[in-house]
Amino acid sequence: MRSSQTRHHSFKTFFSVISREHSAYLESFSLILGHLKRRLNFFLRLCWSFTENRDPKLPEKQLWGDSMSGPYENVPESDWLSVTDKLLAEHPLKLSDILAISLHAWSSLWSTSIGTGTDAIELRHLPMQATVVGYFFEKLFAKRLSDITNGQWRSGHGGEKDLVCEQNPAQSIEIKASGQLGLKIFGNRSYGQELQAGSTGKKEKSGYYITVNFYGMTMCLIRFGWIDAGDWKPQLAPTGQMAGLEQAVYDSKLIPIKGDYTLAGPAQLLNGVGAKKAEGLRDQGIMTIKQILDLGHGLNDLKTLNAARLFKATYAE
């Protein structure tokens, strides 16, 4: 009996050692594969750079596996904001430039007419889908930017970003606009689906972004920053048509461009102001955040007034 137990223990020890060695081999093999993948990815970028006459270090195109390393890779979420600040400091367009061009393009959009003579109709009098408004804004922004930079920037085509920087394509910008009530930004559901399927589609979705929230004819908030392809999360419902961003992206990767223009936004942008309260405010002739601030304590609603003051401190001052 003892001899049988001894043999059983010896076999158990033997297979335990083999298992540990096998795990070590697998771990080493995985590390080697990872190294080879990185080297091959660089080699492919190098070959692409020769054909496109570009710097192989520029993160312009996905060539192997997952999205290529971005500026936030392996950076803890608590440090994202410092990375964003650095990216924006290195970019040729400053927040003040983007704000001025955005306001000019927005005003130009709603002053535009279609038709001629007595048949002309201003766009402001036409029911337009938010996607159409966003497209017109993008083109007017690109035209203005090209004009004031003597062609250093231009409107993108096909798989290019919406705003192409001729001197450094890596600093090109995508514009994403949302006409829904609120301060969230949405992409097509395909943004998240393509990432999960391992495909980036026709246009690289990582990079610099200008995001615009508007409601009707009112521009509510402009942001500038960086969004990675992996930041877009598709709706869980099979019938969902949009991909959204998590709060951490809004907090640390997209910088609000402050200005008094934000105070023209509807009262429902304020925390605690839902449809019912907004209706009550409209009955008093109050529709915007600025009107709430102008009334001050005459509003007789301290909670809403404080929400308006917080909004102003966050997005206007």
Task: Describe the overall structure.
This protein folds into two domains: 80-257, 3-Layer(aba) Sandwich (ECO RV Endonuclease, Chain A), CATH 3.40.600; 265-315. Helices cover 44% and strands 15% of the residues. It is built from nine helices and eleven strands. A four-stranded mixed β-sheet has the order 5-7-8-11. Strands 6-10-9 form a three-stranded antiparallel β-sheet, with helices on one face. A hairpin with a 7-residue loop joins strand 9 (233-234) and strand 10 (242-244). The longest helix has 51 residues, at 2-52.
The radius of gyration computed from the alpha-carbon positions, rounded to a whole number of angstroms, is: 26 Å
Number of strands: 11
Write the H/E string, N to C.
HHHEEHEEEEHEEEEHEHHH
- Compute the number of structural domains: 2
Range of helix content: 40-55%
Strand order of the largest sheet: 5-7-8-11
Shape: globular
CATH architecture of the largest domain: 3-Layer(aba) Sandwich
